[in-house]
Every structure is written in C-alpha cells, then in structure tokens.
Amino acid sequence: MNLPDKHNQPLVTQNTFYTFAAPLLLMILFAQTITSIPRLSITSDEDLHVVSGYSILRTGDLRLIEEHPALIKLWMSWPLLLSSKLPNPQEIPGWAQGNLKGMAQSKTWQSSPIDSWLIPSRIPIPWLALLLGTFLFRWASDWFGRPAGLFALALLTFDPNILAHATVATIDLGVTCFIFIAMYGLQRLFHRPSRMNLAAAGIALGLALASKVSALILLPISLGLMLTRGLRRWRKIPVMQVLVYLGVAFLTLWAIHRFEFGMPPEFSLSMPAMGLGRPLAEGSTTISVKLPFPVPIPSYLIPFSIVGRHVAKGSLSYLLGETYRGGRWYYFPVVFALKTPLPTLILIAMAIGTALRRSLRRWRELVLMSFPVSYFATSLFSSVNLGYRHLLPILPFLYLFVAQLVSPVQRDCDPQTGERQSAKRTLSRCLIILALDLLLLWQAIGTLITWPFYLTFFNEIAGGSRNGYRYLADSNVDWGQGLKALRVYLEERHWTDAKLSSFSPFIRPQVYGIQAIPLPPLSRAPGGMRARFNPASGVYVISASTLRGLQTFDPALYNWFWHREPDDMVANAMLVYKVSERTPTPTWVAQCTVPIAPLDPEQIAEGFGRSDLRLAYFDCSQSWLYPTGGQSPGWVMLAQDAPVMERYLASTRLSYVQQRGGAFPSFRIYEDDRRMVHPSGGRARAAPSAMSLADALTTPPLDLPVTFNGLTLLGYTLDHSTLKPGETVSLETAWRVDSVPERLPSLMAHVLGPDGRALVVGDGLGVPIESWQADDIFVQRHTLTLPGDMPPGQYWVQTGIYWLDSGERWPVRDSRATGDRLLLESVQVKR
Fold first, then answer.
1. DSSP letter at 681?
2. The whole model's pTM is what?
3. What is the CATH number of domain 683-829?
4. Which of 559, 593, 758, 831 minimizes the number of CB atoms within 10 Å of its CB?
5. Nearest residue to 676 via CA among 740, 732, 633
C-alpha cells in the first residue's frame, strides 16, 4: 500500500473527515429521533393523520383527506399496510359520512393497542429529516464549500424544533423538507438549465404542494424568481419553461392523488375582516362554492375549505399571560425568539452582520431569502397562532444562510489553499472558527439535555424548557406527549387519586395505564369544575395547554393555578400542584359593586364549592371592606374594570382572573389572609357641633381610636397638608363596626373655614349597612376639592357620623370627651 507523502497527509485526512462526517451527523440525527419515538405518548392530530393516510392507502378513496393534502399522510401510513390486525376503514363507524374524527375515536379503531399503529407511523418521519439534512448539506456545500455544508448539517442535527417534529406523525416536518427541496431544485435549474433539472424542479414543487396548503406560497415565489431570471439573462419571459415547470408540478400533484377526476365537493370561502391576525368579524361573508363540472383532483379543494374556515374563525392561543382567539402580529416573532436555540440566534445575527459588510452574490441572496422572508412576513398576518411548527419551513434556509460564516474563515485557516495571510489575520480567523464550534457545541448540549421531549425546548431567554409554559402553550410546550412519563411519575409515588387534565381529550389516560381522576377536557370528566375559585385539596396534574384554557369550555377554567408555582413538573409540560386546605378556613366573599357585582349567590356557591360563605358588598372606588376585621380569611372579588383603591390590594394575593369571553363576566379574585392595610392611629379633638371652631381647637386632642354610637374611628390619613386653590385632598378614615344600625347613616368629611363653616363637603358611605356585621372594619375615602377662589390660610378637616334621613349627628361615646364631631388636622392653602 502506498502511503501519502508528508505534504498530502493533511488533505487526505481532511477528505476522509468530510467523507464520514456528514453520514455520522445524519446517523446522530436519526438516533435522536428513533430513540425518542417510543417514549412519547400520542400528540394532537396524530390519530387523524394516521387514520386518513391509512384509509386512503387501503381503499384508494380520498374522502378523508380533510385539512391537509395526501402526501405526508400517505408516507407516514404505509407501514400499517404490513399489519393484518388493523380494521378495514370501510367497516369503521363514520366512513360513510366521511367523519374522520369519528373514525379515529371509534372503538373499532381504538381496539388496537395505540402503539401498534402509532409508532410504525412515526418511523417514516425521521427519514424525511434525513432527506432534509442531505439536501441542506449538498446546497450549503455547493455554495460555500463542504466545511460550511457540515456546519449547516450539524446545526440541523441538533435543532430541537426539527427533532421535535421528526418524532411525531404530523405534517410539519414533511412540508419543511419538500419546500426546501423545491427551492433547491429551482436554484439548481437556475445554475444549470436543462430539461432534466426543469423536470426535477417541477416534481419537487408538486411534492411540496401535496404536503400542506401553506406550500402554495411557493407558486408566486418560484414564478417571480423564474420571471426575474429570464428577464435578466434573456431579456424575455421564459413562457415555455414556466409552463413545463407548472405542468410537471401539477402532474406530480395529480399522481399523488391517484389521478383523481370528478365532481368537486361543495366548499366555502370566508372573507375575514381586514386587520393583522384578526379572526372573522361579525357581518363578514362566507361564500359557498359548488362547481357544476368535474375537475382534476377535486379532493384537493377540501383542505382549502377547512383551512379557510379555520383562518376565518381564528385559533384559541396563549401568549405571555393572555389566552385569546385570533392572531397577534407579534406572536411568531416572540415564539421564534423564545424557542430558537440561543446559539442559532447569535449565528443569525453574525450572518446578517457579515452579509451587510460583505454581501453574497445578489442573485444568490434573492433565491436564498425569498422564501423565508416571504413566509415569515405572511405569518405576521395569521389568525392561527398555534406554534413554532408553523415557522419550521424557514429553519433550513436560515442554516444555509448561517453557513456563509464558515466559508471564508475556513479557507484562511486551511494551509492547503496556498493563500498567504498574516499571522495575526490567520489567528483571528481561526478564533472565529473556534467561536463557531463553541456555539455549535452549546446548541448540541442544550438539545441533548432536552431529550426526548424536544417539543418543550425553550432557550435561555425564556429560562429554559421548564419555564416555557409561562410564555406559550399548545404545540410549543404541550401537545399531549407526556402521558407515558406521567404514568411512571405517578407509579413511583403510588398516587392513584391524582386529578388529571390532559391536552389529549379524546385519548383516555387509561390507555397508558394512568390511574387518575379525570378533569376537563378529558372524557368522563364533569362538564364543569366545581370550586374552580377554591380547588379542593389533593394532587392536581394539569398539562400546560389545558392550564391556559386550550380545549376547555372556558379559557379561565384553571386560572387559579396560574397564580401558583407548581410543586413539580413532568416532561417539562405537565405541572403538578399539591393543594392543601387553607387554615384557618375562609368564611366570607366581599364583592365590589362597581360597576356591578360580578357573580350572584348561586355562581359563588358553585365557583367556591361552598354554600355557607358570608356574602358582603362594597363600593371599591371609595371604600374597602375587611369582614370579621381580620379574624378569618376570605376573598375579594372585583370586576375587571372596577375603579379600585389599589393600595388596599397590597393586603391580598391575586388568585383568579376571569377573562372576557368565558362562562362568567370578567373579574378578579383576591385572597385575603387577614393581612389588613388601613389607616390607624392619629389624634383628633372631640367637640359639639354648636361649639365655635376657636373653642373646639382649645379642647385637648385624643389619641385614636375614638368610639361613636356603634362605630369606632381607628385612624385616618390625609394625603396633602399644603394645597393650592382648586386642588383636591383625599381623606381616608378607617372604622370598626361595633353594632349594626337599623337606619342608614353617612360618614362626614368637611373642610372648615376660619369661621367654622363647611366650605367643602365630601360625605359618603361605600359599604352598605346590609353588609355590616360586628367587628367588621372598613375604610372610607372622602374626596375634597377646594374651590378655585379659596383664599389662602389655614383650614380644618373634620369627620363624624350622622343619620342620612334626619341629619342628626351621632354622639361620641368616649369617657375622655363629649361631642358629635372630630377635628382631625389642618391644611394650609397657599397661592
């Protein structure tokens, strides 16, 4: 054997490395996915995709094509043809009606062990990931060299979002793969025009169109690029090339749908209201269309009708503390920032900086960025905010874009290039390569530690995968994939009476051997949740998506748990709460009546799970009520838009928020744990109302509290002691109820002039006597606005109590003094 000489050894070694590195990375990619597949429980829609694909393959009938075209569903379902134990689709209830959901949930289909048809259907999806990685390596190598190709492939290999959707039997990884291949085929055609490349590009486009409706964006992009290329090179439109390209794509699409030809089904087109991500508005038009003649691929129209209705209606989504229907333009930018690995974000920023300083070839830039920019821009207008998976198709393009970072620095560090660079420049370029490798290592470690629950990945900006539920829901965090892990978790702790709410309402947890008490939206769970404002003691396991109200009858159903830290977490997606009885036991509910009291007594009994609670009412815009005076805890309920005295909320803890659009009007609930905040102490002079102000000021001041006939003044605060004419001073007085009067009183608040006459009156009572009980404490706010022409000088503030019907004042019942009013303190008016 001839050994290479000394000078050739590095090159041979390098070529050997390149020969084996790409297959090794693909093997690592495959290993990560194939080892994750059996550890994941079924996710949302997997059963629908599998039943649809299997039915089409088994019968040749396309009636169950539903929301997505056939290609990926056929690809994932072909292993099921090797099984003789699965039922004939035509014998499953729902076939005649074309009811895909009914078929997927029927006992006939579910009688087969779930993993016997789910795992075989998942295994073909990683093959598409391998295909995607192969094309990414080839494209990056063609443009930037093999080191850049390896770097792009390595980033894809350790991308948790790619891995997450390469382990489930869904559509998103497949459409990502074929969109990228379609764009690769197009650029290959531009680089080497030939009939073979033209046909290959058309086939790739047809495969993408047969994957998912969203791939239709390729049509204007590819046609625009072809027209631009033709005008640049030949100064004319390549009409024949475009027609052949589209014709081959159509034939490919038609072949995948078995050259179907017939009468199209009736479908509807909804015209949503204009606006960024807004769902269908009232008064918008839904048009039903029924073509009167046969057409090729009539079933291809079915997904457009379903997707159109979905887009018009909008999806229920959760983002940054809000559950809403429709879209938010910033949803996908936030999702991308939180779920893209931080090293990737850094690399994208570096690549953008490099492109601005040293641009790629302009045509390359146009081909490379046309799809990801257009696709991301359209996502800003989407009313369907379901998850990062809708951004998946842009990832391989971003890794191709990042690969440009490797090409120039790798060349400068390679002694075989023959280039002569200064030692300083060579060192700096090699340091850049080291930085790129460290970023890649960072991404790899961050991804591997998330195994096998790649779907739950969140980067360091979000605080890692265990904190993702705080920001997002649905397929970003919890798609139902954690039930197998939950079974192990519960068995280890011997918990058989845990209460469970899972994101897969049509898959019974018992399928995975889970013994738990079902909560909505699980089947066999009660229609509502009694004591949703005050859950009973026990262990609750609530998945991140149902926690945020997705798939539940009311988005706020589990809002009580939003305001508590979970005691544990399973699979980064299922939150465990250990709820204990509150001691001492709460005894009351106080509702603010402004603008209205949120709930009636029956709703309160249902919501708190108790019918023995004392109900009290107060006007929170001018008062605050502490039933029992801190002797027992309770709850305060406020309408969402109530003009509340905010500082008194400091004595409470927010425990529940009912959002608009739920089963109840919007309101907030605060737990009051006897930590009262109210004015206390101070000094006042007691005097009869008939006594002049000058004489009253000579009486000795008393330390509060001071008792009247049934109420005791505990303290007061005056927010200003120096004012200008026209300004407002706020007086807050705190009172304890000693006995409940039979008539309606009012609390007095006056600003007295030097002659003792009341110049400003701010009387009021924000807590009706029907809500009073002995030992209650309440605070009353009096607003006193000075006249604009008030002369400068010293003025006094007084308070007291009088009967509202007669004006008779209550006497002071204190052994230290007599009178029917209290002079509190003076305010100084200055110009």
1. B
2. 0.89
3. 2.60.40.3880
4. 831
5. 633
